[in-house]
Amino acid sequence: MAKRPAFADWLDDTNDVTRMFLAAGQIPGLINLAGGLPDPQLYPARALADLAHAALTETPQDALNYAPIEGYGALRDALATRYETDKLKLTRENVLITSGGIQGLELIGKVLLNEGGAIATQTPTYLGALDAWRPRRPTYRPMRPDANDFDPAVALRGCQFGYTVPNFSNPTGKLVPTNVRAALVEAAQSTGTWLVEDDPYGALYYDETPLPRMIELAGDGAPYDGPVIYLGSLSKELAPGLRIGWVIAAPEMIAKLTLAKQGSDMSTSGLSQVLTLRTFETGLDARVLPDILTLYAARRDALCAAMETHLTPWFDWEKPVGGMFVWAVARNPDFNTDDLLQAALRAKTCVSPSSVFDPLGEDRRAIRINFTLNSEPQLAEGIRRLAVACQEVDLR
Amino acid sequence: MAKRPAFADWLDDTNDVTRMFLAAGQIPGLINLAGGLPDPQLYPARALADLAHAALTETPQDALNYAPIEGYGALRDALATRYETDKLKLTRENVLITSGGIQGLELIGKVLLNEGGAIATQTPTYLGALDAWRPRRPTYRPMRPDANDFDPAVALRGCQFGYTVPNFSNPTGKLVPTNVRAALVEAAQSTGTWLVEDDPYGALYYDETPLPRMIELAGDGAPYDGPVIYLGSLSKELAPGLRIGWVIAAPEMIAKLTLAKQGSDMSTSGLSQVLTLRTFETGLDARVLPDILTLYAARRDALCAAMETHLTPWFDWEKPVGGMFVWAVARNPDFNTDDLLQAALRAKTCVSPSSVFDPLGEDRRAIRINFTLNSEPQLAEGIRRLAVACQEVDLR
């Protein structure tokens, strides 16, 4: 047989992280603190079973026919209502339903990036966003909103868009403060740059009052046409397996994203959309949320207590007020968390090293630890094992 | 506010067809013969409601958690078994679950096309495939498998892949004969080119015994590693709203498509996948199929009878032995079916003009007529209106 044609060039850019984590999944007894998964025991499966049965018997065509590319009208209306404020005026023309949050990111890349296009991204940043944009081989300009000399206009000028996760950033778990949010919005307006507000963790505030969304700050009381492209998701608030996300943006952007979605998957599952609408209508998501917050807050506390006991010789961190992650930075700038991961796997635990969250792949000094998936005893044991791994790296 | 950045260049290449068809949907009393939709009354909604309830109560984690990127193992196994023959040896490593058939096409473009990459495509061809690949701005080499001088090796050599719909091609409704299938497979092997076999209509044979699939012809009794990339879908056999498709290909190709899918939507709806598995396990799809075939065959006959009565002055066509479409070619080479569509809309009916199925956008001589969505009286009335439109174009 003749030699087959080469694969597309961007596939040369992929790293081994996914393969490594998949291999980790095969280790018996591993305590996985690396992922970003909800605890499946929180999914309201029985309530969803009843809603699915009702959806398929009462509105079978909505559930089983091709949905409109941009999503069901009633669900788009429900989301417009959900996010509307006095200043932020929304209609369904501002809303696109996506097949999970990551599809929103991919579609934004599709409509805004020619090969090599420039993105200003909060750094460290979400690994999945880098995956979504890799086929366009973008250039990245790092943004560090917590740096003293951060100038949003300098960061955004000349880029196709800026990318931020203002609530409990993946990976750092930190909040972008309100004044920086406002400055980013103002810079997006003054430079004409689009500004992506990726917000999968926005409901997961454990201790504090939620800060205003950037898209709210961009609202001016007129029908929304601002530069902020907001991404929401059902994955962290209800269940990821339904693959439902949404984009809220200027109608011009929604129209282009719709064109791009047509060639990606035509439309999002009708069954999942009808189920999401019924979830909102019956208030199921609101009923589930208090249990989610209680469980995750307790786990965050348990994780931080275990870290206090075991990791202080090596790491500094801040206790996050929400989200799913603690970000720990090594005290010694020469500490290499890629090496730590290898040692951690030998000790039967697993965290995410900072290199995978750096668009330039350089940061080796930090780790991301998840606290939502494992029980309190598992978290404590995982951190004990991580300390064993730290000792091993230390002694090399 | 400053001027916003330009959208990606490929968006300049999109045509107005979608917008025109969407506008057509607003015309009261329109009989739409343009689409390619199943008849929703055939969806087994009650049976699916029971299966969905059972899936969410009995295997809630499979339905509600993130599915593996490549799809549920049990569903991949079921599809490997479904397609396996004596010569075609398959395991789950040969199978990827996709969010509908069009995602399979998009992922193939993602992993095989750099900007401007070459595709040899059966012409006329599926509009959705053109949409899926447009962001990569490919170059197209038309393949006409029914031409007397068709040479598959000449067509495929130097291309990244060939694209065919051998069963009831969209738009022509024709079969690629077995000897041409075999010649295409042989040419793919001798030239080292990938060969995409897109098969959404493969179950819709009304009169004849199904021809062998190209992927079967490529099987040699060893674990499958051939050049044919087969795409299947649940959309035409059960219901499109679940958004379930599958790719069957060499493990090397499945691995690359999986990498691409990770950045597209992470995974396909778990609920839809579990529902599909239970559909296969309970034989629901097989129980539904006879009713689908009976209804669609009768409608095909009704459509062709109406065409015989009304369209013979203007068009020639062959009665298809399966699928969803009749392809009618104008007797007069100067007949312009783009103009016909405008006249048809005024007469309150709608067909698809050949220009949209031509990768080069040039063919103006034919139309695609769908017979699966409308009742027999609607089909007859739609064709009567189309004849009125033909008369109008004729008289200009």
From TrEMBL, chains A, B:
UniProt domain Aminotransferase class I/classII large: residue ranges: 50-385
Gene3D superfamilies: Aspartate Aminotransferase, domain 1 (3.90.1150.10), Type I PLP-dependent aspartate aminotransferase-like (Major domain) (3.40.640.10)
Superkingdom per UniProt: Bacteria
Biological-process GO terms, alphabetical: alpha-amino acid metabolic process
UniProt keyword terms in alphabetical order: Aminotransferase, Pyridoxal phosphate, Transferase
An example Gene Ontology molecular-function term: transaminase activity
Listed cofactors: pyridoxal 5'-phosphate
UniProt cross-references to SUPFAM superfamilies, sorted A to Z: PLP-dependent transferases
PANTHER family cross-referenced by the UniProt entry: AMINOTRANSFERASE (PTHR42790), KYNURENINE_ALPHA-AMINOADIPATE AMINOTRANSFERASE, MITOCHONDRIAL (PTHR42790:SF19)
Protein name listed in UniProt: 2-aminoadipate transaminase
Organism (species): Litoreibacter ponti
